[in-house]
Amino acid sequence: MSLDAHLRPINHSETLLINERSSALEGTRKVFRFGFGQSPFPVPAGVSARLREHAEEKAYLPVQGLKSLRDAVAAFHREQDGVDWQGERVLVGPGSKLLIYAVMAAFTRAEVLLISPSWVSYEPQAHLAGHTVHRLQTSAESHWRLSAEQLELFCAEREQPELPLILVLNYPGNPSGTTYSEAELQALAGVMRRYNVLVISDEIYGMLNHAGQHRSLARYYPEGTLITGGLSKWCGAGGWRLGVMHVPEALAGNLLPRLLGVASETWSCVSSPVQYAATEAYAFGPEIQAYVAREREVLSLIGNAAAAQLNEAGVATAAPEGGFYLFPDFAGWREQLARRGIHSSDQLCTALLEEAGVALLPGTAFGMPAEELVARLSYVNFDGARSLALDADLEQVAQPVLEGIAAINHWLAQQGQEAA
Predict the structure, then answer these.
(1) pTM summary value
(2) pLDDT per 10-residue tile (average), the chain, 420 residues
(3) CB atoms within 10 A of CB 58
(4) CB atoms within 10 A of CB 16
(5) Where in the sequence of the chain do the CATH 3.90.1150.10 domains occur?
């Protein structure tokens, strides 16, 4: 019996695949690993110590999550974001990735609205849940941000307005590194409220807003905003797989039981020792406050230096406002690249990896048209532990990243010379 015709067209996540390709190539040449977005910083010592203390915890915990953890998460976000998080409406999951999927899986039919560019897994998750996906294209000129006018036009012209509309909004953005101003969020919230849009606000990078000024969408649209976050980015604990979601009071009665149902039939509960350790992280004591402040300083310095060097080489790159990503646009080199037979972001990234040893992810992975010569650059290939020392020379810490940027610029210069 052939199964091929009945299998879903779901491929290996491109962010994980580029990590594997980079590792394989490293055996033959130096590779600048800008493809995989993993925090370079170690988990804070106090949080790791708490994990060790609870290593023998082996009992299943409540599906919704450890109560002390949920209360700590709610208090943390009330303090940091000025939003009404309540522990009884927090759901703990194995990473925010699966929590986002749980929301999609809770609906029998829905339309999912994504921004181009946006994180690679949103669209496959929507398809796995059986939903229709729509995209709204943003541009370098808007710093890859969705406008209220774009959202208004889409909502006004929907062919099936009776279906739930789920918008996934991620900021500071992966892949862009840019964020939204208060005025932009307020304008978007007005449209969302008018059309009853359900928003998954993926604020996993919120704590890494470089200026420490992240504003949650829930401030302006509390009744329709599900917020996701977790430990992977600001606490350096990606492999621990702990994410959190807050369900607003207006949606909790109907939606939260469905989310708990999805959780109970899939992951059951997050690892017990990790939940106890996460309680320490979300207590946000002085050690962790200093840790996050230093992360922001380091990421801002390195990201802005990298963006400046790319811009000097004619690669339009928005300065990062949060997280650890850049989304350079190579359109200024289109003519020279075309002479090499490079007409798409996939071809561009293949050439950069094979010829310059620079691993980037093509814009197509993030929903961009193939002909747009854009790519995501994760500037995380530096010694995060070393950078946390207050006496560390951050210019030296930044060198592995800036060497990679120099390799890109040198490769581009070669293309220009060959074209001449």
Answers:
(1) 0.93
(2) 66 60 67 92 98 97 98 98 97 97 97 97 96 96 96 97 97 97 98 98 98 97 98 97 97 97 97 98 97 98 98 97 98 95 95 95 96 98 96 96 98 81
(3) 9
(4) 13
(5) 11-40+287-419
